[in-house]
Amino acid sequence: MDDELVQVFSASHMDAEFVRSILEANEIPAMLSGEGHSSAYPVNVGGLGGGRVLVRKEDEAKAREIIEGVERGDYALAEDEDVEGEPVED
Question: What architecture does CATH give domain 5-72?
């Protein structure tokens, strides 16, 4: 098994954490690597915050495919859905 890590995403700490969680939900182990002061201050304020998502080299292609889906909105909830995917009652 190849344990070399590669960066597949870089953005604000919050966006990077979201992408990491989507990858892990799709059974791709991922880790978040902070840049600058993002570990102490997870809010992106100018150049102070940011995060990089790292995966194993062997998972890179699948991770990038999933990230493209995230960017297309494939993982967004419809306005009338709750987190369980059921319609929200008014």
Answer: 2-Layer Sandwich (3.30)
